[in-house]
Amino acid sequence: MYPYLKLIATLVKARFRGRLTPQQSNVIHCRVGLSDIDPFGELNHARYLNYMELGRWDYVVRSGFFGVMRKNGWGVAVGGASIRYRRRLAFLQKFTLTSEMLCHDGRWIYFLHEVHARGKICASALLKVCTTSKQGLVPVPIVAEAMGMPDWGTQIPDWVQAWIDAEGQRPWPGSESIQ
C-alpha cells in the first residue's frame, strides 16, 4: 500500500522547512514504522524506495520545482533504479535519508539517495527520473530553464555514465510471447 499519510506529512513539513537550491542535498529524518517491516522485524527492501520517494517529494517542494510543475501541468515518473543494501534497519530505528539531484543527460535527471543510521550507510540508490506532460517527456533543458538554472547538471560523473551505458545494453523484452 502506498504511504499516503507519510506523503501528506512530508509535503506539509516541507512547506515549513527552509528553501533549498536544486544544487543542495536534502535531508529528512525517519523512523522505521510497523507498516515498514518485514517478517524479520526490519525495514522491507521495497520500503527503502518508498522513503526515497518521500525524500524526492520533500526535495521538489523545498527547491521550488513542485510549484514549477503545477504551473506547467507537469508530472514526474521514475524510469529506473539501482539500489544497494548494506545494513539492516530494525523496527523503530531512526535513520537519515539524503537526496541529491546529481546531473542529467537531456532526458533523465539522476538522483542519488543514501540511507544512514548510527553514522553508517545502510543503502544507496541511483534513480533516473523524468518530467512528464500530456505531450510526453519534457526535455531537461526546458525544466532547468523553468527552474532558473539553465546550465545545471550537464557534467555526468563517470560512475553514473557507466550505469547509463550498462542500462542501454540491457535487453528489453520484445513482443515475443512469454512461455
Strand content: 25-35%
Q: Which of globular, elongated, flat, extended, rod-shaped describes the shape?
A: globular
Q: In angstroms, what separates the terminal alpha carbons?
A: 30 Å
**Low-confidence runs of at least 5 consecutive residues:** none
Structural class: alpha+beta
Strands, count: 6
User: How much helical structure, as a percent, in the residues?
Assistant: 25-40%
Rounded mean pLDDT is 93
Provide a count of the helices. Answer: 5
Written as H for each helix and E for each strand, in order along the chain, the element string is HEHHEEEEEHH
Biggest sheet descriptor: 6 strands, antiparallel
Quaternary structure annotation = single chain
Radius of gyration: 17 Å
Task: Please give a quick description of this structure.
Helix content is 33%, strand content 30%.
What are the main properties of this structure?
179 residues, 6-stranded antiparallel sheet, globular
Describe, in plain words, how this protein is organized in 3D:
This protein has helices at 4-16, 45-63, 65-72, 140-146, 158-169, and strands spanning 26-31, 75-85, 94-104, 109-117, 120-133, 136-138. By secondary structure, it is an alpha+beta fold. The two termini are 30 Å apart. The model has no long low-confidence stretch (mean pLDDT 93).
Task: Write the SSE topology.
Blueprint: H1 4-16, E1 26-31, H2 45-63, H3 65-72, E2 75-85, E3 94-104, E4 109-117, E5 120-133, E6 136-138, H4 140-146, H5 158-169
Antiparallel strand pairs: 1-3, 2-5, 3-4, 4-5, 5-6
